[in-house]
């Protein structure tokens, strides 16, 4: 019997998960997303082209591999339809190798409206939502009022839809939100709803499955399954920097509930970290840089959200947060991405501990959002050289390997590979 290997982010997202999944896909039979929704943006680059996926697993470009959208994922039909059309323009026919769980929940147009209403109601305390309807859809899931993909095949689907829509509109009134002003692009709520309903026909053309049976049958048959996470550990609803988090469990435990597999069936846990840190939206970020170095990281790293386009906040790598993520995820292997962004730095740094209220600590405090945190920064000599000529891990500059070795020592987890460019070919395995 096989086990499910897991690949997930260890920071605040945008670590390069899509690219690494694409690189690893040839070693697997099934690639399965287990949580999140269109708030994710997984960017892949190969053959001189960039591809951004939001809902669909990053193994979709390998037509001989099965891709599964698991029960823990949220599907927004119109965004899904757009993503399918984009893939077809690139010569990919997703109906051949993409399966959808009947138990995955739908994001309705009014979920997106509620998302905007909730953010507006928070005033200066906004959490930085992507406004894709994620929070309201997961709220309905927990409240047991949500609509699932399997429901669109039932005779009473439209009745369920209209009832939930009416609830959402009443909630907007309570929040004093002017629904007539809501827009998705140039579309009003009513105009968007028509496109959304038409997009359900696209979903009906796919193979809709009981994904928990499907995944477990694959494991029983000895097939290799890779679970692909969205967002990252520090955005986990339980263990992230709450309330500045996403609405799902982004950690390894989320694989069990998001795909329907037992904990005993989890194999390798591969975690991805950048050689520095980024964050989109509000929330604590102890190593954030507000100077020219931070601007350079943003510009050289092209740090703009794949989903929102917002510039990412940038700072040095945060070891206490990384060690914490490795602990709760049970990480067995580390991937490090984007050291090439710092090729021209004379000096690079990492945070190894915090000072909080006059006391030193290496732990993430409960009051992460409320206290002033001073990072302890350890300096390293920059490598001052392009990495494009490196063909193996041992080709990396000595100063970079010293920096990477320190990450291993601090986290207690071995680095298995380093990504030195956006292209899929530039991943150097140890």
Give a description of the structure.
By secondary structure, the protein is of the alpha/beta class. The chain contains 11 helices and 19 strands. It has a 10-stranded mixed beta sheet with strand order 9-7-5-2-10-1-11-14-18-19, sandwiched between helices. Strands 12, 13, 15, 16 and 17 form a 5-stranded mixed beta sheet that branches. It has a two-stranded antiparallel ribbon with strand order 3-4. A hairpin with a 7-residue loop joins strand 18 and strand 19. Helix 3 packs parallel to helix 5. The protein is globular and about 65 Å long. It starts with a strand and ends with a strand.
Quantity of strands, as a count: 19
Contiguous low-pLDDT stretches (5 residues minimum) are none
Helix/strand structural class: alpha/beta
Oligomeric state of this protein:
single chain
Structural Rg: 21 Å
Helix content: 25-40%
Number of helices: 11
Terminal-residue CA separation: 27 Å
Largest sheet: 10 strands, mixed
Biggest sheet strand line-up: 9-7-5-2-10-1-11-14-18-19
Mean pLDDT: 93
Short descriptors:
single chain; 430 residues; alpha/beta; ten-stranded mixed β-sheet; five-stranded mixed β-sheet; 11 helices; 19 strands; globular
Strand and helix layout:
Blueprint: E1 4-9, H1 17-24, E2 30-33, E3 42-46, E4 49-53, E5 66-69, E6 74-75, H2 77-89, E7 98-101, E8 105-106, H3 109-121, H4 134-142, H5 157-174, H6 189-204, E9 207-209, H7 211-220, E10 225-228, H8 253-259, E11 266-274, E12 276-279, H9 292-300, E13 313-318, H10 319-329, E14 333-337, E15 347-356, E16 359-361, E17 373-381, H11 398-411, E18 415-419, E19 427-429
Helix pairs in contact: 2-6, 3-4, 3-5
């Amino acid at each position: 019997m096989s086990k499910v290997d897991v690949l997930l982010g260890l920071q605040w997202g945008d670590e390069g998960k899509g690219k690494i999944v694409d690189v690893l896909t040839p070693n697997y039979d099934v690639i399965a997303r287990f949580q999140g929704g269109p708030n994710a943006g997984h960017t892949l680059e190969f053959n001189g082209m960039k591809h951004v996926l939001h809902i669909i697993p990053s193994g979709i470009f390998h037509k001989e591999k099965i891709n599964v959208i698991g029960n823990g994922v949220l599907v927004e039909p119109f965004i899904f339809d757009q993503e399918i059309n984009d893939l077809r323009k690139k010569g990919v026919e997703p109906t051949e190798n993409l399966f959808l769980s009947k138990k995955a929940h739908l994001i309705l147009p009014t979920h997106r409206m509620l998302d905007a209403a909730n953010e507006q109601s928070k005033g200066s305390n906004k959490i930085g939502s992507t406004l894709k309807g994620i929070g309201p859809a997961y709220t309905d899931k927990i409240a047991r009022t949500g609509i699932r993909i399997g429901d669109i095949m039932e005779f009473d689907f439209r009745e369920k839809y209209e009832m939930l829509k009416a609830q959402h509109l009443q909630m907007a009134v309570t929040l004093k939100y002017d629904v007539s002003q809501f827009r998705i692009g140039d579309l009003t709520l009513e105009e968007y709803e028509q496109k959304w309903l038409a997009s359900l026909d696209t979903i009906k053309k796919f193979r809709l499955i009981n994904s928990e049976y499907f995944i477990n049958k694959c494991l029983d048959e000895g097939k290799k399954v890779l679970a692909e996470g969205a967002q990252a550990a520090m955005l986990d609803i339980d263990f992230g920097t709450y309330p500045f988090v996403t609405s799902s469990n982004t950690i390894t435990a989320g694989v069990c509930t998001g795909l329907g597999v037992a904990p005993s069936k989890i194999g390798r846990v591969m975690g991805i970290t950048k050689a520095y840190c980024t964050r989109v939206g509000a929330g604590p970020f102890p190593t954030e840089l507000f100077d020219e170095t931070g601007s350079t990281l943003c510009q050289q790293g092209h740090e703009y959200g794949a989903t929102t386009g917002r510039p990412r906040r940038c700072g040095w790598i945060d070891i206490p947060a990384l060690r914490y993520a490795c602990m709760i995820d049970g990480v067995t292997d580390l991937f490090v991405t984007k050291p090439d962004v710092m090729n021209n730095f004379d000096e690079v740094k990492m945070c190894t501990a915090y000072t909080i209220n006059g006391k030193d600590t290496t732990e993430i405090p409960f009051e992460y959002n409320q206290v002033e945190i001073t990072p302890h920064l350890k300096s390293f000599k920059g490598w001052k050289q392009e990495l494009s000529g490196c063909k193996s891990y041992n080709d990396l500059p000595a100063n970079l390997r010293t920096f990477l070795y320190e990450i291993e020592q601090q986290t207690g987890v071995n680095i298995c590979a380093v990504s030195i460019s956006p292209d899929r070919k530039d991943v150097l395995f140890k």
